[in-house]
Amino acid sequence: MSGSCVKQNTHPVPYVPFNQSIDLNLPSYYSLSGVGGYAYVIGGSRGIIVYRRSLDEFIAFDRHSPADPNAECELPLYPDDDNFLVLIDSCSGANFSLYDGSPINGSDYGLMQYATSFNGNNIVTIYN
User: Is 104 exposed, middle or buried (0-12, 13-18, 19+ CB in 10 A)?
Assistant: First the structure.
C-alpha cells in the first residue's frame, strides 16, 4: 500500500498511565473474593471497575464511556441494577458488557481495558 494513507481508528477514551496493586483482603475489595464480584478502583480516566471472571482471572475496564468521549456526563459507567454484567452510560443510553467490555448498544467502541495479573493469593495488579 505504498503511497496511500491509511486512517487508523483510535479509541475515544484517553490513555491514562496506570499501575496499581490491590489487596483482596482489604474491606473495599471484599466483593472480589468470590467469582462474579466487582469493585471500583480510583484511577484511569473516570475510575476503573474490576470484575472477577473466575478463581484466577480478573478483568478491569475504565469507567469512561466510549460513547461519551468528552466526558460530558457527570456519572461514569455503572452496573445495571437488574443485571450487574451490563454497564450503563446514563447520558447516552449506551450499554457495555462487564464480562468482556464489548458494546451491547449505543457505541462503536468497547470499553478501554487494563491488563491484570493475580499472584494466586490476594494481590491483583492492574496496569497498562
Answer: middle
